[in-house]
Amino acid sequence: MDFDEYRKYDATGLARLVADRQVSAAELLAVARERAEAVNPKLNAIVRDVPAEPSDDLTGPFAGVPFLIKDLGQDYAGLPTSNGSRSLMAHRATEHSTVVRRWLDAGLVIFGKTNLPEFGAKAISESVAWGPARNPWDLSRTPGGSSGGSAAAVAAGIVPCAGANDGGGSTRIPAACCGLVGLKPGRGLTPFGPESAEMMHGAAVQGVVSRTVRDTAAMLDVICGGEPSGPYSPAMPGSSFASCAGAPVGKLRIGFRVPSAITPDPHPEAVRAVENAVRVLTGLGHHVEELPRAPFDDAALAKDFLLTWFVSLAWKVADARRLTKAPDAAFERDTLLMAALGRATSSVEYVDAVHRRHEHTRRLSAFFESYDLLLTPTLATPPPKIGAFDLPVSLRRATDVLLRTRTARFLRHTKVVDDMIRDNLGWVPYTQLANITGRPAISLPLHRTADGLPLGVQFVAPLAGESLLIRLAAQLEEAAPWAYHLPVMS
């Protein structure tokens, strides 16, 4: 099999070829590695090799299919999980993460780990440890973050789908940047063990980025469900998620909103992305209407999200120091700044923010009394250029002084947090809602800009809405096929 033939199949299709003995796992891995050798020097998507010995004796629904995992939250026993940080470059995992074990049990052939920002803390994948990952549709632009390496690898055809996770949009944002399907399951449906019961109070979940809806659905079947060390046993659907791809959808009531409190005037391409989606949905018989206002307090939600994110990052830095005795120099400037803001947050302020999640959830739940789904852009702008969010030299110097003198915590009493919301969430103000509320959401590649860049749209569902999202996504995929576009990288 050559690459042109390999590219015609998604993971489900490749697995069928292996099961029918039309191709071997070794042949597929050879094609995937050859493609990686050709394009990864341009993309910097794969940052670590994983030893892989494909066998014809592999079993499971994806037996023999090449696969990549993210270098965060997806430990592979015996190899380091860097979290995108120089502080953890040599710290080896002692056991597989539950999600990695489930992928291996499904027969997937894991041969690499993918690029990300330090601790997954940004919507771009530009760490000092690994260097920037690049978008195969435009190498000068970001593939998003934090699962940017996985998305770049899938979009470039190295693998048909790859491991991702999502604590604030980290699956959906890269999917939107790279023209892929990105599903964030609801809270607790996928495991984060055995080392952690859950991350960010369950706001972070495991998943994949893929080219096709049926791969996304079948991968969710593989990884979903509780584990003995988990915090609870999630309710499972009556039928498989894979069976939902192609199942009847019915006529849905969908409310859409494009402006946000953070970004009241999104890029015209983001507006067009939703307009195009509305036309397709209406043509399919769904009732779609514009909302006069957001169905939740999006300004307050952004502040609560960042406050809890800063505290979580402070813990991650402290944990890395405990594990490796890493000095400040082993962490990035932005990470240390956010961690300092997290440490300056009182315990009462933090618990207040966590409790306010229930307020946001109640408002969204009230919306779902009248609508089946919420539609937004996934991105407020096309994918930014690499380096667009680098601090100016003057601000870098000022930040270094604050960090050196241990006075960065005083920035909490200035407008710096508002500036960070505007600068870091301004192009991605829509995705944190699903994480804070624990609801499932999906990004679908229904739009391309005038320059040919992907720019996805997002659907947010109520509790246990994964099956509904998959049914609608499959219907949209049939109406506006996207899976076999291949970027030309120069």
Task: Throw out a few tags for this protein.
single chain, 490 residues, alpha+beta, three-stranded mixed β-sheet, 13 strands, 11% strand, globular
Please explain how this structure is put together.
This protein is α+β, with helices and mostly antiparallel strands and 490 residues long. It is 37% helix and 11% strand. It starts with a helix and ends in an 11-residue tail after the last helix. The chain has helices spanning 3-6, 11-19, 25-43, 98-105, 148-155, 172-178, 213-223, 268-283, 298-324, 333-343, 347-367, 393-404, 416-425, 432-437, 466-479, and strands at 46-49, 66-70, 109-114, 126-127, 131-132, 161-166, 181-184, 205-210, 253-256, 287-290, 373-377, 441-444, 457-460. The chain is globular, with a radius of gyration of 21 Å. An eight-stranded mixed sheet has the order 6-8-7-12-13-11-9-10, with helices on both faces. A three-stranded mixed sheet has the order 1-3-2, with helices on both faces. A two-stranded antiparallel sheet has the order 4-5. Helix 5 (148-155) runs parallel beside helix 6 (172-178). The longest helix is centred in the middle third of the chain and has 27 residues, at 298-324.
